[in-house]
Amino acid sequence: MSNRLIGYQSGQGFLYGLSGASKMIFFILVSVACMATYDPRFILVIGFLSIYLFKRANIRWKDVSFVVEIIGAVALFNLVMVYLFDPSYGEEIYGTKTVLIEGWGRFYLTSQEIFYLANLLLKYFSTVPLAILFLMTTHPSQFAASLNQIGLPYKFAYSVSLTLRYIPDVQEEFFTIRKAQEARGLDLSKKAGLVKRIRGNLQIVLPLIFSSLERIDTISTAMELRRFGRYKKRTWYVHKSLTKQDYLVILLAFLLLGISIGLIFLNQGRFYNPWL
């Protein structure tokens, strides 16, 4: 497994040539479009588009597998909790009830509940890849410049840039310390018990967090000494003006958002009902 969970990777191709602002606008608008509707036809289109963009970006599976596995586990846990809280929510949405598995008490499984939960799962695996693509194809400095370009204060944009730059360093330190601990006989691999692994990792993470806070304070002091934030505006070394390709990407994002809104009117609500 790579020592870095996720972060910017330099490369060449269509996505790397786009401005950070256009990629951010595309990610935000398409994510909103996916979250606004529960029409699986539209969500699947976005999912296939995400897979296609992954191939275009030449991102290797081993570079994102760990993050995808974590997100998959969280998504499955969320589906289980949604079902446990209200097993009949699907039939309330779609106005019909087709029992597949008889359960005990309030717990049973219907086609409508499966369809609703499947839509939730599709939302995860349609929007999360777009977020990963954005982070892995956008340089932190360009990301900050894009935030400022779309109207956010440059102080906020710069703090985001520093965070994105610092997270990989913290990850590297964490894995380095963990390997050193394992070399001293502390087993933190999958062979160890879950409780032991959690306790051992916490012993590494907590001191690392406090040392990170000290570094942040040092960086903040250094920036204040250099009179950072004195002026209302600033220039960006990696600022990239929008090109024809950027405008086409933004236009596609608005088109997908418009289709999502149109489906809401067509389906007479956010939920597509195949039982009608």
From TrEMBL:
Transmembrane segments: 24-54, 66-85, 114-136, 247-266
Superkingdom per UniProt: Bacteria
UniProt KW keywords: Membrane, Transmembrane, Transmembrane helix
InterPro entries linked to this entry: ABC/ECF_trnsptr_transmembrane
Record membrane topology: Multi-pass membrane protein
Protein location: Membrane
Pfam families membership: CbiQ
Keyword Transmembrane among record annotations: yes
Xref: PANTHER family: ABC TRANSPORTER PERMEASE, PROTEIN ABCI12, CHLOROPLASTIC
Protein's name according to its UniProt entry: Energy-coupling factor transporter transmembrane component T
Source organism of this protein record: Streptococcus raffinosi
